[in-house]
Design goal:
Blueprint: H1 3-34, E1 47-59, H2 64-67, E2 78-89, H3 95-100, E3 104-113, H4 117-120, E4 121-138, E5 141-155, E6 173-186, E7 191-203, E8 214-226, E9 249-261, E10 264-267, E11 270-273, E12 278-290, E13 295-306, E14 312-313, E15 325-326, E16 334-345, E17 349-360, E18 369-378, E19 383-392, E20 396-408
Antiparallel strand pairs: 1-2, 1-8, 2-3, 3-4, 4-5, 5-6, 6-7, 7-8, 9-12, 9-20, 10-11, 12-13, 13-16, 14-15, 16-17, 17-18, 18-19, 19-20
């Protein structure tokens, strides 16, 4: 049996499993509809969903490993994943539903295959997700977005002796980022069908080396079972609940973060990994103008110490086997920058994007532009967890930003359901 035929059979089995789960959900829905109607209006409760998705995808060949420099000697182009998800959202026509376009959030579990289990593994992703409507075409049909953010486990990382061809991932655990844009069609009281596009990225944030990362683009096909919904709920008047007028104001976010990273240094014609792990610590102070419930923007002062900045090596081999790596003075590893920030605000989470430049520094690795992508997760009204990723000159991974933030002068209204 050829390898191609085996792959086809695996894909067919996955489709059969997906259809089987769909049939099981249909049976549950039929049984639910035969029961007496709930006497508590569904619009007064949280709405709960469970779902399953499949995502066949194309792997971008950013590494020679995917181009054919692997154990099989063939390009690796295809990935496939199956996802199990739970979500909840606020009642239809509540104030939160009106403001945030039917926002929902939850937790998901994804099972991935990259067509090379021996060298790259079959990782499992555990993640948080959130989504909402972009546009409504009818009460039953809408265009939605969704982001996923979490960790993936079970990778087969690079090893000089046993897995030297894998120049894609250097760690057994990697961050997982995903963005979906899809059509959502309410089929019945309990079922939604979803179809759209899906973009994914796996990376360890330079905490291990190598860190070429894995990037995929594909399609998303899913089915969600809503436990407590009637189709008539979707046609409820959109402005049943009063929404408090938003007071525009300036708030101030102060974030302290830290992480660790590895470093590769150009020596001759190749990039050599330093054996050391380097510390990163820093802060952001950002006055942000709050335009409305969903958008704020401002300028951030960004200071950090990067223990890997401007690390260098000599031009001879110590003992004939390894290079020596040296750290410069402290002043060449400190920087202070300014960045423009925009922030998309949703229930429980905010997504922050920034583009900036280091204004005070001693050159070398610290020269140039930097970009920031961060997720803020509310702990209390004025305290949030901060998980961010810094990129240098729009292409080179920089470092993770794991920390805690404090918001001052917060006049954001307390929204009642």
């Amino acid at each position: 049996m050829t390898c191609h035929m085996m792959k086809c059979r695996i894909q067919i089995r996955r489709i059969i499993v997906f259809l089987g789960i769909t049939l099981l959900f249909s049976t549950l829905s039929f049984a639910q509809e035969r029961k007496s109607k709930d006497t508590i209006p569904s619009s007064n409760r949280f709405i709960h969903k469970i779902g399953v998705e499949v995502r066949p995808a194309y792997i971008f060949p950013v590494s020679s490993f995917f181009k054919g420099e692997n154990e099989t000697g063939k390009p690796i182009r295809n990935a496939f994943s199956t996802h199990l998800k739970y979500a909840f959202q606020h009642p239809y026509s509540s104030a939160i539903d009106q403001i945030y376009g039917g926002a929902y959030q939850g937790i998901g579990l994804g099972f991935y295959s990259f067509s090379n289990r021996r060298e790259i593994g079959n990782p499992v992703a555990l993640y948080l997700f959130q989504g909402a409507r972009i546009a409504r075409f009818s009460p039953r049909l809408s265009l939605n977005y969704e982001w996923n953010f979490g960790l993936s486990f079970g990778w087969k990382p690079y090893d000089y002796d046993t897995n030297y061809r894998n120049t894609v991932v250097g760690s057994k655990a990697n961050a997982y980022l995903n963005a979906d844009f899809y059509l959502n069609w309410a089929l019945s009281d309990h079922f939604d069908l979803m179809a759209g596009v899906s973009l994914s990225h796996f990376s360890n944030g330079n905490t291990k080396y190598p860190n070429a990362g894995v990037n995929t683009a594909g399609v998303k096909l899913g089915l969600a079972y809503t436990i407590n919904r009637k189709l008539s709920d979707l046609s409820l008047p959109r402005y049943q609940s009063a929404v408090t007028a938003f007071p525009r104001h300036v708030s101030y976010d102060l974030v302290f973060f830290g992480s660790w990273r590895r470093k590769g240094i150009i020596f001759g014609d190749e990039k050599i990994a330093s054996p050391d792990t380097y510390t990163v610590v820093g802060f952001n102070f950002a006055p942000m103008y709050n335009f409305d419930y969903k958008f704020r923007a401002g300028i951030s002062v960004d200071g950090f110490y990067d223990g890997s900045a401007n690390v260098y090596t000599d031009d001879y081999y110590a003992g004939g086997t390894e290079l020596n790596f040296y750290k410069p003075s402290l002043s060449k590893q400190l920087a202070l920058g300014l960045s423009g920030r925009v922030e998309y605000v949703m229930p429980y989470f905010s997504v922050n994007l920034g583009v900036g430049v280091n204004a005070l520094h001693r050159g070398g690795d610290l020269k140039g532009f930097y970009q920031v992508l961060a997720l803020k997760m509310d702990v209390t009204r004025n305290i949030f967890l901060h998980v961010g990723y810094s990129i240098h000159d729009f292409e080179r991974p920089n470092f993770l930003m794991l920390g805690i933030g404090f918001r001052f002068n917060n006049k954001y209204p307390a929204i009642r359901r």
